[in-house]
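Mods, move this if it's the wrong board.
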Amino acid sequence: MLNTQVALLTVAQMGEADRLSVQSGISDTTLMENAGDAVARAIQQRWSVRPVVVLCGPGNNGGDGFAAARHLADAGWPVRVALLGNAERLKGAALHNCRLWRGIIEQLHQGVLDGAELVVDALFGAGLSRTLSGDAAAILTEVALRALPVAAIDVPSGVMGDTGENLGGIAATLTVTFFRKKPAHVLFPGRLLCGDVVVADIGTPPSVLDSIGPTAFENHSAHWRGAMPRPTHAGNKFTRGHALISGGYPLTGAARMAARAAARIGAGLVTVAVSEQALPIYAAALTSVMVAPIIGAEDFAHLLADRRITGFLIGPGAGLGSHTRGRALEMLATGRATVIDADAISCFKDETSALIRAISGPCVITPHEGEFSRVFDVTGDKLTRSRAAAGSSNAVIVLKGGDTVIAAPDGRVIINTNAPPTLATAGAGDVLSGIILGLLAQGMEPFLAAAAAVWLHGAAATAFGPGLLAEDLPDLLPGVLGHLDAQLIVSRK
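Not the wrong board. Structure tokens:
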């Protein structure tokens, strides 16, 4: 069961949450009043009193803006309000809050920005599905030209709530949303435009999530911390799992980093299977990791037949071609947990059906965007594509990037947000595949193992800071794991 505290709601699901809230006895005017108050409070916590202009749109987002303007004015802030369209066309709670505003309602034009030191963007919420144009686009362009700080309500106007796509929005310093985040708050480019995101409680009963059944979540240790494998006093190296990696040649560094990552995350044994000419390189560089020479095809088959091996990885430094593809298919044929990464993904270009047919057990595929497009012929936003690939392949898909998406075959997705930009360095992906392998080899369920690995990978990079090299990452894992254990102990007290 994933933690609903970090559930991500689509625009339709948030609309259903509002409907169920009203059904439970909380009026829509109360929800909007609470939203406006939350926006005003968030602004007051971040900025000192200053002239502010609130740009209101023709829907409920504009109604939230009117409520926020009233609360700021009541707190002594000098506030101007500008409305896109006519007040007579407002409806429901938005019209109610418009009528409660005691000041002048100006038309939306660039002059309302004169003297302003803060802009509240209440033009359009997450449900916008068309490119901004006309007066709305013009005034936001002017806001950006004047470099005015922006506090956005729900999402910056122009950002699509379900995908994070930008249809003409500008960057906000602060975004205040309600009840739960939306995908736009964690997916690029929306995440970059939102600035700091505050999730405000406006009185929506958490029980509405039981009816909504969210399937998208932000990555958090609460999802998988309890499922993390832990050594026991009665265990031994084999009960902690045996991970096997197919080592590449002449590119040997990728598999070596993956092997060290698998060992650091807790696999009891790690073996790298390598060609005879590569054996001296691997043997000299790896001490706690075993190296198995593969002279003929029967040697590799003999390794795979060892039932004590509980997880496989192929791809890092493997090279393209039939050799890598054949080994990947052999691994998958065992039905045991397998990670397909890097070259082992690309070698199935134009042969996706062969890869999908071969998946018969736990499998995690870890493409970046280029590798994904070579193998999976699906279009759409990142969530849609990840879900489609996971559903068609019956594998967990880890579509990598600064907003890595982990997708399960059943449609659940987890979006990662803790990866620092320093992870954009050669070999970081190889370490990630090794962490996933190590967790799978210890028996962790693939979807949670992938989510945990991605988060731990990001936390390790953050702990190191500037100057990170991929080879630094495995040795940072014990510290991250220790910090997690300390948090768990505190939470149980």
